[in-house]
Amino acid sequence: MKQAVVVCHRGASLQAPENTIASLEGAIALGAEVVEFDVRPSKDGVLYVMHDATVDRTTDGSGRISDMTSEEIDCLDAGSWFDEAFSGQRVPRLDAFLDACKGRIGTYVEIKEGDPAEIRDMLAVRGMLADAWTFSFDQAIRAEARAKVPDLRRMVLYAHVGSVERAVALDAHILEFHEDDLEEGLIKEAKQAGLITQMFYAGSDRTVFEKAVRCGIEQMNIDQVEIFRAVERELLTPV
């Protein structure tokens, strides 16, 4: 059994402010193979790495990011809310964030808002398509990505599609499971269908990580990288 690919959820978000260059660098330092991050456009159409619809929680500003110009967003402090040591971190523009990822770490782009084709082109011009994939909770964005950018790999959630067969019918490349639908039989079925299996888990319960390893999950989208790797080593190291 191989080690799972680690996907750092919003970067190393327990060690640095989420969705910043600092959290990206932290993910790389942790040895993660992929960084997960969220994308939204500004009022003037510049794509930014930002999870929430508003900047209130993760910056010193307030308001909807879609109502703010890029000039306004570029002035925000996106680090002090987490720790004064990160004072001066900015909300990254997507182009700069991808430049910092290129050749160093794979990318999982969750599109909160934005044009999948524009994101695909930004990845392609940097030669990053092979190590990238996308997902959105917005059904319209998922459909648009499938129709407009078939060469950008797409993920679906088992909770949304309800079966491996449906994931295949939607031309998905990656099928993500959660704690409540993780079953060894489903993982095997998904692999046999040619899907990459992934699990999202935001917690730190070792028994959940143990179950994921025993089920043979291929990718883990997580916050607690060190705990997962420790559990994985224990289970995969021959006695």
Automatic annotation (TrEMBL):
InterPro entries the record matches: GP_PDE_dom, PLC-like_Pdiesterase_TIM-brl
GO biological processes: lipid metabolic process
GP-PDE domain location: 4-232
Source organism, top-level taxon: Bacteria
PROSITE patterns given in the database record: GP_PDE
MF terms in GO: phosphoric diester hydrolase activity
Pfam families hit by this protein: GDPD
Name of the protein this chain belongs to: Glycerophosphodiester phosphodiesterase
Organism the protein comes from: Roseibium aggregatum (strain ATCC 25650 / DSM 13394 / JCM 20685 / NBRC 16684 / NCIMB 2208 / IAM 12614 / B1) (Stappia aggregata)
